[in-house]
Amino acid sequence: MQKEQQVFLKEQLSILDTNERLKLYKRASTLRKNQQSRQKPRDDERLSRGKSLDDFVLQILLQETGDVPVDRTSGNGTVIWLGPKSCSVRSADERVECSIPRSIHVAIGDRVSFGPRGDEYSIVAVMPRSTVLSRPDVDNGRIERVIAANVDVVVVVVSVIAPPLHPRLIDRYMIAIQRGGAKMLLAINKVDLLDGQTRPVELAKLEPYRGIVAMTLCSTTDGTGIDELRTMVTGQTCAFVGHSGVGKSSLINAFDPNLQLLTRSVSVGYGRGAHTTTASTLLRLADGTQVIDTPGVRSFGLWDIGRSELAWYFPEFEDYQSDCKFRNCTHSHEPACGVKSAVARGLISSPRYEAYMRILTLA
To answer: Which of 91, 111, 132, 172 could form a disulfide with 75 if both were Cys (CB 3.0 to 4.6 A apart)?
Structure first.
C-alpha cells in the first residue's frame, strides 16, 4: 500500500462514526485471527512482527473503495446531491455521478476525491470536515448521521401559525450547530400570517433568543425580510434546516426564482408540514453563495451530548458559572449555584433554563 493511500485511508477512518468504526475493527480482528490460524506454528515469530490490527482495517477500507490507488483518482469535488447509495459531485464546472462504497459515509457538502471503478466512478475518500451538523440516526440512536458538512452558516427556519412555532426545536439546533462549529441564523418565516392580536403573542416566544442568536423576520408572500436574509448569507455556504412545511425551499426560491424548488402547502387540520424536499441538494447561486436545501424533520435529537458539557452550549450561562460553589455544578440541584441565582434574578430567561433542564435529564 502506498504512503499516499495510507494517508487518505486514515483520514477516511477518522470520518466514520463511532459505531461504524467499531464494526470495521471487529471485521479486521476476525480477518487477522483467521489469517493467523492458517499459518504454521513455526511462523508464529514472524506473525508477531506482521500486520497490526490497523493495517487490516486500512486494507478492508482499500478493498471496499474499489482498490483505487490515490494517484489514479480522477479528481476532487464537493458533494452537491446525496442519495442512498450514490451522490453527485461538482468537480470544477462538471457534475460527476459517483457510487458510494459501503465503508464510506458521505454528507452533503463534503469535499471528496473520486476515481474509476469498473464502468462508473466511485468515491475514494472524504476530506476532513471543517464544520458538521449531525444528529442521531432515527432508527438507531447509537449511529451519528451528518446532515451537512463544511457549511459556514446554518439557517434554522421556523414559522408562525402554520406550522406553529416550536422553541424546543430551536434550543436543540442551537446546541448541535455550536458543537459542529458553524454559525446559526434564525429565520422566522410566514410573518404575513400574524395580525394585531397574534403578533405580540407569537413574537414573545422568541424573546429568550434575542442577543444570543442572529434572527430575522421574513415572508415569501409579501417579501418581508427576504433582502435582509439574502444579505446575511451572501458569499457563504449555508444549510437551511427545520420542520417540514416551514418554507425552507420557498425562501431559497425567493433568492433565485429560476431554481424552481418544489414546495407544498401545510396539511390542513394538523398544521403539519408536508415533506416536499426528499434529498439534500447543494445549489450555487449567481453571486457564489452556496445553499443546501435539506428535507424537513419531525423532531431533532442531539448526538452524543454529555451532561458535563451541556451548559457550555447555553452561552447566556457563561457569565454566571464562575459564581457556582462547586466546580462540577450541573446547575440543577446544587446549592449556591450562580446560574440558578441568575435565573431567579431574571438575568437568564426561565424558558431557556427550562430547556436546559429538559435536555439535561435526557443526557
So the answer is: 91
HEC string for 50-88: CCCHHHHHHHHHHHHCCCCCHHHCCEEEEEEEECCCEEE
pLDDT digits (tens, 9 = 90+) for 316-336: 999 999 999 999 999 999 999
Phi first, then psi, for residue 51 (nearest 5°) are: -65, 140
Residue 188 bridge partners (DSSP): 158, 217
What is the architecture, at CATH level 2, of domain 146-293? 3-Layer(aba) Sandwich (3.40)
Longest CA span, the chain: 88
307-362, superfamily in CATH?
A: Probable gtpase engc; domain 3 (1.10.40.50)
Is 290 in contact with 187 (CB distance < 8 Å)?
Answer: no
**Residues in the chain, pLDDT under 70:** 1-5, 8, 17, 36, 38-51, 64-73, 260-278
Omega before 163 cis (within 30°)? yes
Residue 81: strand pairing partners: 88, 281
**Any bridge partners for residue 145, and if so which?**
135
Domain ranges of the chain: 3-126, 146-293, 307-362
Instruction: Indicate the class that CATH gives domain 3-126.
Output: mainly beta
Report pTM. Answer: 0.78
CA distance 177 to 213: 11
Which backbone phi and psi does 273 adopt, to 5 degrees? -80, 155
Are 109 and 237 a contacting pair, CB within 8 Å?
yes
Containing 350, the helix (H) or strand (E) segment is helix 350-362
Using left for φ > 0, alpha for ψ between -120 and 50, and beta otherwise, residue 348 falls in: beta
Helices (H) and strands (E) in the chain, counts: 12, 13
